[in-house]
Amino acid sequence: MFLSHFIGDVHQPLHVGFVGDEGGNTIIVRWYRRKTNLHHVWDTMIIDSALKTFYSLDLSVMIQAIQKNITEAWSHRLPPWEYCDDGRTICPNLYASESISLACKFAYRNATPGSTLKDEYFLSRLPVVEKRLGQAGVRLAAALNSIFASQIKIARA
């Protein structure tokens, strides 16, 4: 359980955001009309809005759309998602570096304290969120495959 939580969290850009604003937790914004903080926008609100706007509130439909992107639109990117440059299966420093870059480029941009985040923010950030969910899923699957492949080898020995 820890591994899935860790891999998921490190792919959320604000989980490696700035210490000074506690990863966006102290940046109070409005998500459309709702008062919240930037971290919550990235943890929950973008996904909830996507479910409502594009997926008829059906999480399985959203998951299928991300799976389709993994097998089609993003398929050429899978090898570097599955393995680290040095051949390891899990590379948390890389995932964190990707996330902080995305936090600066997307999460924090145009999200100043007191701002109202609407369609322009939502529609331009949703592809980032969906891609990070896909990357986290691919990387978790690769890690689990590696762990269980090792277990099978040990059992056979």
UniProtKB/TrEMBL annotation:
<comment type="similarity">
    <text>Belongs to the nuclease type I family.</text>
</comment>
<dbReference type="GO" id="GO:0003676">
    <property type="term" value="F:nucleic acid binding"/>
</dbReference>
<dbReference type="GO" id="GO:0046872">
    <property type="term" value="F:metal ion binding"/>
</dbReference>
<dbReference type="GO" id="GO:0000014">
    <property type="term" value="F:single-stranded DNA endodeoxyribonuclease activity"/>
</dbReference>
<dbReference type="GO" id="GO:0006308">
    <property type="term" value="P:DNA catabolic process"/>
</dbReference>
<dbReference type="InterPro" id="IPR003154">
    <property type="entry name" value="S1/P1nuclease"/>
</dbReference>
<keyword id="KW-0255">Endonuclease</keyword>
<dbReference type="GO" id="GO:0004521">
    <property type="term" value="F:RNA endonuclease activity"/>
</dbReference>
<protein>
    <recommendedName>
        <fullName>Aspergillus nuclease S1</fullName>
        <ecNumber>3.1.30.1</ecNumber>
    </recommendedName>
</protein>
<keyword id="KW-0479">Metal-binding</keyword>
<keyword id="KW-0325">Glycoprotein</keyword>
<keyword id="KW-0378">Hydrolase</keyword>
<dbReference type="InterPro" id="IPR008947">
    <property type="entry name" value="PLipase_C/P1_nuclease_dom_sf"/>
</dbReference>
<keyword id="KW-0540">Nuclease</keyword>
<dbReference type="Pfam" id="PF02265">
    <property type="entry name" value="S1-P1_nuclease"/>
</dbReference>
<keyword id="KW-1015">Disulfide bond</keyword>
